[in-house]
Design goal:
The protein is about 20% helix and about 25% strand. The strands form 3 sheets. It has a 6-stranded mixed sheet with strand order 1-10-9-4-5-6. It has a two-stranded antiparallel ribbon with strand order 2-3. A two-stranded antiparallel ribbon has the order 7-8. The longest helix has 11 residues. The chain is globular and about 45 Å long. The two termini are about 30 Å apart. The relative contact order is 0.22. The C terminus is likely disordered.
Length: about 190
């Protein structure tokens, strides 16, 4: 798959403070971002995104063992995503892109005009949309030059494979790396 250089310096709101897209890698070579549908003012997150997110925590040790960091990103302020996450009891990293163009640039947030028209650029083509947010998954890699590159994105029905992480998702990373030492049977690994 082609590597497309990310030319913008996005800054996210995290529980630990401001973080760049590069910071979300947490020192790893790749980053998987789930675009979680939660817009400013929404009382709750998307039901489908919530269901998919229930599967993330178990995958985290496997992704980390393969040099892949993970974060969910929503355009709602961090306080809103924190409130929703607390109801879900997830331990995965969830950050806010509020105040940035990240969600628009990766075509998962839409303007009122696009929603009113009922279609927009989504899933690499002109598609029907019914809300100001849609789900997606993007994978990024650090290049030898230190830059961040988008290496993969999928949307809509392409997200069905997320239920069953990590086996289906490691195929989407640019450089699949088997763990150096697989966990012992029954060993619990803290994500």
């Amino acid at each position: 798959l082609p590597w497309v250089k990310v030319g913008q310096d996005y800054v996210f709101e995290t529980p630990q403070g401001a973080a760049s897209l590069a910071d979300l890698f947490e020192g790893r070579g790749q980053l998987m971002v789930y675009h979680f549908m939660l817009a400013p003012g929404w009382e709750e997150g998307c039901r489908g995104c919530s269901f998919v997110s229930d599967h993330f925590d178990g995958a985290l040790p496997h992704l980390k063992a393969r040099d892949v960091a993970f974060a969910a990103v929503s355009c709602a302020p961090l306080a809103d995503s924190g409130r929703v996450k607390a109801c879900m009891c997830g331990k995965f990293n969830w950050v806010s892109s509020h105040g940035t163009s990240f969600n628009r640039d990766f075509r998962v947030s839409f303007t009122p005009e696009e929603v009113a028209a009922g279609e927009a650029e989504y899933n690499f083509g002109r598609r029907e949309i019914k809300a100001d947010e849609m789900p997606g998954l993007s994978v990024f890699a650090r290049g030898a030059d230190g830059a961040v590159y988008r290496t993969y994105s999928t949307y809509s029905r392409g997200l069905d494979l997320l239920i069953g992480l990590p086996d289906s998702e490691q195929d989407r990373t640019a450089e699949f790396k088997p763990p150096s030492a697989p966990p012992a049977v029954g060993e619990v690994t803290d994500p």
